[in-house]
Every structure is written in C-alpha cells, then in structure tokens.
C-alpha cells in the first residue's frame, strides 16, 4: 500500500517494467512498459527526484489491487465484527478500492475464536498479518510470546508453545490490531462503536496517569471501555491491562446515595446531620482526611474546609501500593498523590490517623474518599471509636463502611477534575457521564458542609476553584497532549 512512482533526476534512467496490456479495440494484448513502483519507506531521497504518491494512475491502481488481495480471503462479517466502524480495512477499501469482490471461489478458512489467553481472542481469517501484535509483545511488553506460522495465505498468528498471551499488556495487542482479528473478551459483542461517544480522561489505576479516552454510551449513561490516548510524555500510546479494565470503577462499588448510619437519606438531611455532629466541636479534635484518589479540586475544597474549621490534623488516604514495572505501571495505585502533596505538603498517613484515634487525639473526622490502604478488621475497630465520621466518597471502602454520615460524590467520569501524576503533570479528566444516583462533586459537598456550619465558603463553581488553584492562569496540562487518529471519528466535546 506504500508503493510510489519515482521519477529520477534528469541524468538517470527510470526503472521500467515490461508488461502486456489489453487493447480492447484491437482485441489483443500489446506489449507495454510502465514504471516500476517502489516502497516509499525503502527509498532514500535524492536531489531533483520526483515522488508521485497521489497523482500517478499506476500508484492508485496498485493500491486498489493490493487492497483487493488483502480482502481476497477476508470474511465479510463486518455486521458482527467488533472492529466495524473503526476498522482500517473498511477505511482503506473506501479510500483505495470501492469495487465489489470479484473472487467467486470459496475463501481460505482458518481458525476462528481462538482463545489466546485470559483477555484476548483471535480470528485468523480476519488477520492481515501486519505483525503489529507480534512486534508489540516483543518490543514494548518485552515478552515475545506471539509469532507467525505457515506461509502465504495459510499464515496465522500463534502463541509460543506452552504459553498463553498473558501479562500486563495484552489489551494493547487488540489496540494495535488494525482489523477485528484480535478482540478483548471484555469488549467483544458488547457495543457498536458508532453508538459510543468519547471523552478525554486520565486513568485512575496508578500514579502514572495514562491519558485515555472513556468510551461511553450516552443512551444508558454507561462506560463501555477505555482506549489509550497518545501522550508521548506520559504513556506514549499505551495503557496496562489493569488500567484498561479500571473503567469498570465508573459503575462498580459506587456510593450513589447519602446515608446517615446505615439508612439512606437525602443529601440535605445528611448535611444537616453533619452540622449537628460537628458544631461546637473544638478544632483540635477535628481531623481532615484528603484522598489521593480524588481530584485536585475536591482536595482543594477539603483544604479550604480545614482552614475554615481551624483543623490542623491533616491526613491522606487512598489505595494500597502494588505491582510496578519499568514500562508504565507505578506502585502507587492512586491517581493524585502528587496533587494532595501539592496542597498539603506533609499530611500524616492513614495509619497515623488510626493511631491518633486510638490515642484519643482525634474524635471527629471529615474524610474525602472511601478507600483506605488496607481493609484490616482492626482498622474498622479504630474507626468505630470515632465520635463522628463524615465521609464524602465516590466509592465504597473501609471509611464509608464506618461512616456516620456518608455523602455520595461523583467519580472521575462524572465531573471534570485535575489529577497530578508522578511526573507532576496536571492532567484533566473530562466529564463523560451524567452524575449517577444522588452523587455530586465532592467539592460541592464540602461547600454544603461549610455553609451549614456557618463558615465562609468562597467557591460555588468549579471555575472558582480552578481560579484559586491557578491564580486565573489556564489549567496546566501535559506537554504533549495530542489526539490520536481515532479522535475525529468518535470524540465529542462534553
Ligand atoms: S495485529 Fe491483528 S492483523 Fe496484525 S498480525 Fe496481529 S492479529 Fe493479525
Ligand atoms: S499504568 Fe497506571 S495509569 Fe497507566 S493504564 Fe496502567 S493503571 Fe492506568
């Protein structure tokens, strides 16, 4: 598909091919000559050379013929293929061929629905043998588990004997596959891509903060998948498997209603209850817990609340550390640890909070985020000793379980928020879904609590917070915030 016609400099001879061409008038073939096309990427450029890529009829014909060959044995199962709507074969057929299939023979049949491993399924008939999946596993994932077997039209991709396609980057083989040969078990037969909208997002799986697209179905307010969003400075073009599946947190384990004790209630009632429990408590007994899983804006509102309350016992919570590698994955499983540290340079740890509760130094806590580093029964006992625990959270966890008052916060896909990754880049995750249940941004809950307690609350909108954070300057973003090729087809502004 990359053949071009090259007209050499005047003192050199063009490479020509002897061919025969059908002369319809004379009713016979005639000997002819035509330029020998060359693969563009293989030819060094020289002065006065002319390269024809679009204006040569020979090039256009060659592309159409190559495209026809590519589709010779390709099953026409676009109506049931997951890649339909974002398939390069469909795009190239429209761009370079647009003729109906001429071959009337039975196409070559090859294995279908081959399970390559826990996440990926392979359809050899759809494969165009571009070897991108092989090269990805070898060069990026550093695990050469895929290879090619047989020759010609019997070629197929195979997994190394005794192995399966597993590890931390298997989803990326599907991402690089230009056709529907590799599909993920997670997304297979789940949605037609033309019904999905996309929002720019940031993976919440770890401190790397890989840039992503959230693909969601606006008809059901439901996220269907993540796709990597190119950013040379952060994640290049990739995401890890754990991250690719972490879109599920948009719907799983969510806090969707306000609660007082174990009873569901309205946000207003919960705020009134919080006011009752926090009024007249000495500020030295109140602690504020920040969340490394919530946005910079949410944490900023908590810091303002702490200032107004006069609370100086400041802690940070979040998910426990985990697996790390040298490719993308960070051991810190929180998306905004660096953001919290920007706002509160030396917060105490969650373990210290539990110690302070046990020691009676802290009796009232307003916490952002439901997760704690470990779900230890002893932690629950310590949290149970608190006089008041008000939690604003998007996800259930040890803190929400122990909460006396729980306020439902929007997750990263339901409200625009800034997350600071391990490199210190401020990255914005756009709003994709409408807030689910009774959830609203955590900074709004912090404002409601502040107002109820009669404190001076300076923010009513997200814009107010961002102005305070940046002093009115535009929100800082990563240096290479780019769009990938799929952007134009599926992206919407939200
Ligand atoms: S990336 Fe897809 S089309 Fe290319 S060789 Fe692998 S399975 Fe085949
Ligand atoms: S490396 Fe971290 S941020 Fe990137 S996709 Fe994986 S979990 Fe998400």
UniProtKB/TrEMBL annotation:
A GO molecular-function term, please?
NADH dehydrogenase activity
Q: What is this protein called?
A: NADH-ubiquinone oxidoreductase chain G
Locate the region Disordered. 470-494
Show the Pfam families listed in the entry. Fer4_Nqo3 (PF22117), Molybdop_Fe4S4 (PF04879), Molybdopterin (PF00384), NADH-G_4Fe-4S_3 (PF10588)
Say which family it is in: Belongs to the complex I 75 kDa subunit family.
Q: Give TM segment ranges.
A: none
* One GO CC annotation: membrane
Alphabetically sorted, this entry's keywords are: 4Fe-4S, Iron, Iron-sulfur, Metal-binding, NAD, Translocase, Ubiquinone
Task: Answer yes or no on keyword Iron-sulfur.
Answer: yes
This protein's cofactor list reads:
[4Fe-4S] cluster; [2Fe-2S] cluster
Residues in domain 4Fe-4S His(Cys)3-ligated-type?
58-97
A biological process (GO) of this protein is: ATP synthesis coupled electron transport
Q: Where is the 4Fe-4S Mo/W bis-MGD-type domain?
A: 196-254
Q: Which InterPro entries match?
A: Mopterin_OxRdtase (IPR006656), Mopterin_OxRdtase_4Fe-4S_dom (IPR006963), NADH_UbQ_OxRdtase_75kDa_su_CS (IPR000283), NADH_UbQ_OxRdtase_ferredoxin (IPR054351), NADH_UbQ_OxRdtase_Gsu_4Fe4S-bd (IPR019574), Prok_molybdopt-oxidoreductase (IPR050123)
Q: Which organism is it from?
A: Labilithrix luteola
Q: Which PANTHER family match?
A: NADH-UBIQUINONE OXIDOREDUCTASE 75 KDA SUBUNIT, MITOCHONDRIAL (PTHR43105:SF13), RESPIRATORY NITRATE REDUCTASE (PTHR43105)
